[in-house]
Design goal:
Helix content is 33%, strand content 25%. It has six helices and twelve strands. β3 and β4 form a beta hairpin. The radius of gyration is 20 Å and the shape is elongated.
Length: 247
């Protein structure tokens, strides 16, 4: 039987019930056409989930009575940040969806030298809420209980600087088609966090490659084949989870 899962932030809960926001209420009542008495699941984005029963089913506001709290599930021990340069069409949506399914912690949209920065910024501003919604739907589908963080787009220099400020056990990597080592050859002990950067179709500029090296990023490649940027992002994410996480 299909499990219908809904998200509500912690401030929407009280001791015995939860009120869904308009988007989730619309999905419950208009898309799934669930009514009073329907059994569903609700999670708070912070690791907890309950079984619940629909007690009111308004178009803009649905309420659930909390029943049983489910046992905790363990997220990947790896804190994985994916810095993905903005890419054309719906490809970024696809990266967000698949990276979320693979357990990424944070997805940072990157403005890089070889993209049209003005158009990219406009596109990102329009699509940020969409990306967050795509991530939420992926969390609901794959059974995760913690939301994926997607901040405002930043330039590559800012991303590198923030990654350099992370804890010592953060492994900083950037994908490069023409240099670097296979990821399997880079496996230092005690890694709890990975920051991974993937360029757009135009690749990295010489200045960005120099900046990455100066801020502690190691270049990696994914074999001798030329991969689309969205393919590289997902392959690298999966490999990082395999080597340092829970795959």
């Amino acid at each position: 039987m299909q499990r219908h899962r809904f998200y509500a932030s912690t401030d929407q809960f009280n001791e015995t019930q939860v009120t869904l926001d308009p988007d989730e209420s619309h999905h419950l009542t208009r898309v799934l056409r669930l009514g009073i008495g329907a059994r569903v699941y609700v999670f708070d984005g912070d690791g907890s989930e309950w079984t619940a029963e629909v007690s009111s089913a308004g178009k803009r506001e649905a309420e659930l009575i909390l029943r049983d709290k489910l046992e905790d599930i363990v997220e990947s021990p790896l804190r994985l940040t994916l810095g993905q340069a903005l890419i054309k069409g719906e490809k970024f949506d696809w990266v967000v969806q698949k990276a979320t399914e693979l357990g990424v912690t944070r997805i940072v949209p990157l403005l890089t030298r070889h993209s049209d920065i003005r158009r990219a910024e406009e596109r990102a501003g329009q699509k940020l809420q969409r990306w967050r919604r795509v991530a939420l739907e992926a969390v609901k589908q794959c059974g995760r209980r913690r939301l994926v963080e997607i901040p405002e787009p930043v330039n590559f220099e800012t991303f590198c600087r923030l990654a350099a400020d992370e804890e010592e056990r953060t492994l900083r990597l950037f994908f490069s088609e023409h240099e670097g080592r296979p990821l399997r050859q880079i496996s230092p002990a005690g890694i709890s966090s990975v920051a991974l950067a993937v360029a757009s179709e135009g690749g990295w500029s010489d200045d960005e490659i120099e900046l990455a090296g100066r801020t502690g990023f190691t270049p990696i490649h994914l074999g001798g084949r030329i991969l689309r940027t969205e393919t590289a992002a997902i392959v690298a994410t999966a490999l990082a989870q395999h080597l340092f996480g829970d795959l």
